[in-house]
Design a protein that fits this description.
This protein is an alpha+beta fold. Helix content is 36%, strand content 14%. α13 runs antiparallel to α14. The protein binds S-adenosylmethionine (SAM). S-adenosylmethionine binds next to α7.
C-alpha cells in the first residue's frame, strides 16, 4: 500500500469512475514518468492503458507442506474443470491459471476482478472456497508482484532473517513458508504499533516457533545478540514504505493525488532503512548461500528506487547489486534505470540536471521567500510526503540547514536524489522493474544486494559508548518522547551511524562477529506488552503436559515461556526454537519492543477446569493443585508439537469419525462405530491428538494425514478447532459445509434470499482478517 498506511476502501474509490479516462489520469504523473523515460516511447500507451484496467485477482497457496498439494489438487482437478465449462451471459469465462513465474505452480491468476467473481454460480463457489481457505490461512490473496521479494531473497529454514517493514505480513508469510520447519529465526518488524499487531494476526495463520515480531523504527533497528555474539542476518527484506504508484490499478485514488513530492519525501527514510539493513547483514557465507538484502517498493519512481540503491551503495562500501537475470526466468521485467531527474516542487519542475545546479539556482535567486521556522510551502509539502511527522521534520530541517558556500539556502532536496557520478560502476541495470502492461500486474521494483567480499572483516576500533533510547511509536507512526530525549537520540544515532560507516571501510583481518554495538539502556515511551518469562522445565504443569501428551525426550521443554513476570503457566504456554530463545534471553523484550514470539502451544482448558469445579461442587476431593489445572494442545501449536508426540498416543479416525465431529459440536462416544468407539471409550478425559489417515472413502478421499486436536470429556468428544477452520475442512473434503454453523448459515441464506446472500459473502470476505489489509497492499 502506498506508504503502508491503512486506507479505507471507500476513501480510495469513492470519487473515481473507472470508465472515465479523465479521472484516471494525472498530467503531473505523465509528465514526470515520460521525462524519466522509464519505458521506450512505443510502450507508453500500453503502459497507461494497463494502469487504467482493474487489477486481476491473484492468490498464493500459503499452506504448510502437505496441504499445498491438497489445495493445488482441488483447484486444478475440481474447480478449473468446472469453470472451464461455465458460461456468463453465454460467453466462456476466463479460467484460473498458475502464475508462470511462481515456483511449483503455487500462485494463481484468477482471471476475473474480485467484483465480477460472484456473477457466475461456478465462480461464486470458487470464491467461497477462496474466502474460507484464506480465513484459515491456507490461501493468501496477494497481489502477484508483491510475491516477488521473498522469491529473490531465497530464504532457507536455517537462516536468520529480518523483515524490516513487514506489516501487514504477506511477504512475512512467504518467508515463514520458506523456513518450514524453522531452525533459524525470522524477525518481522514494523514501526506502526497497530500494523505490527495486524502482522501478528497474519503470522498466526502460519504458526512458527522461529518467529519474533517487533515494533521498532527500522532505520535505527538495534543491535541484537545471540549466544553472546551480535546477531547478524543471512537475509534481510527491506520492503520499505513508498509512494505506491505501482498500485494505481488497485488504489485508484492515487490518480487524483499523485505528485512527485510524495516520493521525494520518502527517499531519506528509505535510504536510512536500506543502510540499516546493510549494517545488519552477515559477513560469512557458503558460496552457494551468500547473505543478501532485497530492497523493494511498489513505486515506479527512480527517486525511491535506483536513487536509494545508488546512495546506499555509495555510502556503505563493500556492497554490490546481484545480477538476478537468471532468477524467475519467466518473469517479464525491465532493467533498472541509470539516469533520471528528480522533480523539484509539486508541479514537476525538472530543470536541474544536478544537485549542485539546483543549489546554485537557489542561491542565485534573491526573490524566494526566506526560510521560516516551520518551513516554506514546498517544505510543508515534504511534510506531507514524508512517512511520519518526525521524518518530515527531519526533511525540513535538513533543507533549511543545508548550506552552499556557508550560506543557508531554502532547500528540501537531497544530493542523493540525483544520479551519482558513478552510476556506471554501480550496475543499476541489475535492478528489476516490473510494469503493469508486461504481464497484467501492478508495478514493482526489486534490487538484490550482497557484500562484494563476504570474508569476515577486521575488529573495528573501540566505539564510543552511546546510550541510544529505543524509539517508541504510537499507532500512527509518530513518536512520543520528549523533545530533549529526541535530540539526544538523534545525536546518538548520528554518532552511531558515523562509526558504523567508518567500520564498513575497515580492512579485514579478524572475524567481525566479535564486534560490539552500542547498547541501549534506556527505554522511552509506552510499551505495554506483558513480560516474556521462560518456565522451569520442571514446572508441574509443563511436566503434566509432557506426560499426558507422551512427548519424547527431545521435546525442548526449556523453550516454553509464559507472558507474566513470575513464570507461572496461567493461561497459555508458548514454544520458541533454540535460536529465538537465545535472542530473547540476551535482549530485554522492551528494548526489542517484542510483541510476539514463537507459537502458542498449550492453553488452559476451560472444559477440563469446568469438570474439576463440578467435581469440587459435588464434594469430591478436588484440590486446586496444579496437576489438576488442565492444559490442552492448541490447533495453532499442533504442527510444532507433532514431531515430539508418541505416535502410540495418537488416536486414529476415519472419514466417518471426521464427518461426525464436524456435524456436531460434541458427538457422543457411544455413537461412533467400532473400533473407534471402544478406543475412545477407554480414554480418560483430557486433551488428545487425532489422525485421520489418507485413503478413499466412497466419494471422498483424504490424500494426506490430517492431525487435529481433540478434547475427550466423560461421554463425548470435540474437535478443538474454530468454526471457520471446521467449515473450511468440511468444504474441502465433503464439498459442502456440514458443520453446525455452516448449516445455520445456509438456512439463514435460504430464508433471506439471494440478495442478502451476496451481502453475507461480502461480510465474510471483509471478516477475512482485515480484508484489504491482509490481501497484500504493497
Ligand atoms: C510497503 S509496507 C510493507 C508491506 C509488507 N512488507 C507486506 O508484504 O505485507 C511498508 C510498511 O513499513 C512500515 N514502516 C513505515 N516506516 C517504517 C519505519 N521507519 N520502520 C519500520 N517500518 C516502517 C509501515 O507501517 C508499513 O507497514
Amino acid at each position: 500500500m502506498a506508504r503502508g498506511k491503512k486506507k479505507g476502501k471507500r476513501a480510495q474509490t469513492r470519487h473515481i469512475d473507472r470508465n472515465n479516462e479523465l479521472e484516471m489520469s494525472n498530467e503531473r504523473f505523465e509528465k514526470y514518468y515520460k521525462a524519466q523515460q522509464i519505458l521506450p516511447e512505443d510502450e507508453w500507451d500500453a503502459f497507461l492503458d494497463a494502469l487504467r484496467q482493474p487489477l486481476p485477482s491473484t492468490f498464493r497457496i500459503a499452506a504448510h507442506r502437505q496441504m499445498k498439494d491438497v489445495l493445488t489438487d482441488a483447484i486444478k482437478n475440481k474447480f478449473v474443470p468446472q469453470l472451464e465449462a461455465a458460461r456468463l451471459d453465454g460467453e466462456p469465462l476466463p479460467v484460473p491459471k498458475p502464475i508462470p513465474w511462481y515456483p511449483d505452480g503455487l500462485a494463481w491468476h484468477v482471471g476475473l476482478a474480485k467484483k465480477e467473481l460472484k456473477r457466475s454460480p461456478e465462480y461464486k463457489k470458487f470464491h467461497e472456497f477462496l474466502v474460507y481457505e484464506t480465513e484459515v490461512g491456507n490461501i493468501s490473496r496477494q497481489e502477484a508482484v508483491s510475491m516477488l521479494p521473498p522469491l529473490f531473497l531465497d530464504v532457507r529454514p536455517h537462516h536468520s532473517v529480518l523483515d524490516l517493514c513487514a506489516a501487514p505480513g504477506s511477504k512475512t508469510s512467504q518467508l515463514l513458508e520458506a523456513m518450514d520447519p524453522p531452525t533459524g529465526i525470522l524477525i518481522a518488524n514494523d514501526s506502526d504499533q497497530k500494523r505490527a499487531h495486524l502482522l501478528v494476526h497474519t503470522c498466526s495463520r502460519l504458526p512458527s516457533s522461529g518467529l519474533m515480531v517487533t515494533n521498532l523504527d527500522a532505520s535505527v533497528f538495534p543491535a541484537l545478540k545471540c549466544k553472546e555474539r551480535p546477531l547478524k542476518f543471512d537475509k534481510i527484506l527491506a520492503d520499505v514504505p513508498c509512494s505506491g504508484d505501482g498500485t494505481l490499478r488497485k488504489n485508484i485514488g492515487i490518480w487524483a493525488k499523485w505528485n512527485p513530492l510524495e516520493g521525494n519525501g520518502l527517499h531519506s527514510l528509505q535510504l536510512r532503512i536500506l543502510q540499516r539493513a546493510m549494517r545488519n547483514l552477515k559477513y560469512d557465507a557458503a558460496p552457494d548461500d551468500r547473505p543478501r538484502i532485497v530492497y523493494s517498493t511498489c513505486s515506479l519512481n527512480p527517486v525511491e528506487n535506483e536513487a536509494v540503491v545508488a546512495a546506499a551503495l555509495n555510502s556503505v562500501p563493500g556492497f554490490e547489486l546481484v545480477d538476478v537475470s537468471d532468477t524467475l526466468p519467466s518473469l517479464i521485467r525491465r532493467p533498472g534505470m541509470s539516469s533520471w531527474r528528480p522533480a523539484v516542487g509539486r508541479d514537476v519542475d525538472l530543470s536541474y540536471s544536478s544537485y549542485e545546479e539546483y543549489c546554485a539556482a537557489l542561491e542565485a535567486s534573491a526573490t524566494g521567500p526566506a526560510p521560516t521556522k516551520d518551513g516554506t510551502e514546498t517544505e510543508k509539502e515534504a511534510i506531507k510526503g514524508a512517512d511520519n511527522a518526525d521524518n518530515a521534520e527531519d526533511e525540513v530541517k535538513k533543507g533549511v540547514e543545508n548550506r552552499t558556500n556557508g550560506r543557508p539556502v531554502r532547500n528540501k532536496m537531497l544530493k542523493t536524489q540525483w544520479p551519482p557520478e558513478n552510476t556506471g560502476d554501480l550496475h543499476l541495470e541489475r535492478c528489476v522493474r516490473v510494469y503493469p502492461h508486461l504481464q497484467d500486474t501492478g508495478g514493482f521494483f526489486v534490487a538484490v544486494l550482497q557484500r562484494r567480499d563476504p570474508s569476515p572483516r577486521a575488529v573495528p576500533p573501540p566505539k564510543p559508548e552511546v546510550k541510544r533510547p529505543i524509539e517508541a511509536q504510537g499507532s500512527n507512526g509518530t513518536k512520543s518522547r520528549p523533545a530533549a530525549e529526541e535530540r539526544a537520540a538523534k545525536k546518538a544515532k548520528l554518532l552511531h551511524d558515523e562509526v558504523e560507516f567508518k567500520d564498513a571501510e575497515c580492512p579485514s583481518t579478524v572475524d567481525a562477529r566479535v564486534e560490539e554495538e552500542p547498547e541501549t539502556t534506556e527505554i522511552v515511551g509506552t510499551f505495554k506488552e506483558d513480560p516474556y518469562t521462560f518456565v522451569s522445565p520442571n514446572d508441574p504443569i509443563v511436566q503434566s503436559c509432557v506426560e499426558k501428551m507422551i512427548l519424547s525426550d527431545t521435546f525442548p521443554r526449556s523453550n516454553l515461556y509464559v507472558r507474566n513476570a513470575a513464570g507461572t503457566p496461567i493461561r497459555s504456554l508458548y514454544l520458541v526454537n533454540n535460536m529465538v530463545r537465545e535472542v530473547m534471553l540476551q535482549t530485554d523484550y522492551k528494548r526489542m519492543r517484542l510483541i510476539s514470539a514463537g507459537v502458542k502451544l498449550f492453553g488452559r482448558s476451560e472444559l477440563g477446569n469446568t469438570r474439576r469445579k463440578r467435581k469440587q461442587a459435588e464434594g469430591e476431593t478436588a484440590s486446586a493443585s496444579v496437576e489438576q489445572v488442565e492444559f490442552r494442545v492448541l490447533h495453532e501449536g499442533l504442527l510444532a508439537l507433532l514431531q515430539y508426540i508418541d505416535q502410540e498416543s495418537v488416536l486414529i479416525g476415519g472419514v466417518k469419525e471426521l464427518r461426525a465431529m464436524l456435524e456436531a459440536y460434541y458427538p457422543l462416544c457411544s455413537t461412533f462405530e467400532e473400533p473407534f468407539r471402544t478406543r475412545i471409550g477407554k480414554c480418560p478425559s483430557g486433551s488428545y491428538v487425532i489422525r485421520f489417515a489418507p485413503g478413499d472413502y466412497g466419494h471422498v478421499s483424504l490424500s494426506h494425514d490430517l492431525f487435529l486436536p481433540l478434547w475427550k470429556s466423560e461421554v463425548s468428544v470435540s474437535l478443538m478447532i474454530d468454526k471457520r477452520a471446521k467449515s473450511a475442512l468440511s468444504l474441502r473434503f465433503f464439498g459442502e459445509d456440514i458443520t453446525v454453523a455452516g448449516r445455520q448459515t445456509a438456512k439463514r441464506r435460504e430464508e433471506k434470499g439471494a440478495k442478502e446472500e451476496d451481502a453475507m459473502i461480502e461480510v465474510d470476505e471483509n471478516v477475512d482478517a482485515g480484508g484489504d489489509e491482509v490481501e497484500d497492499v504493497s
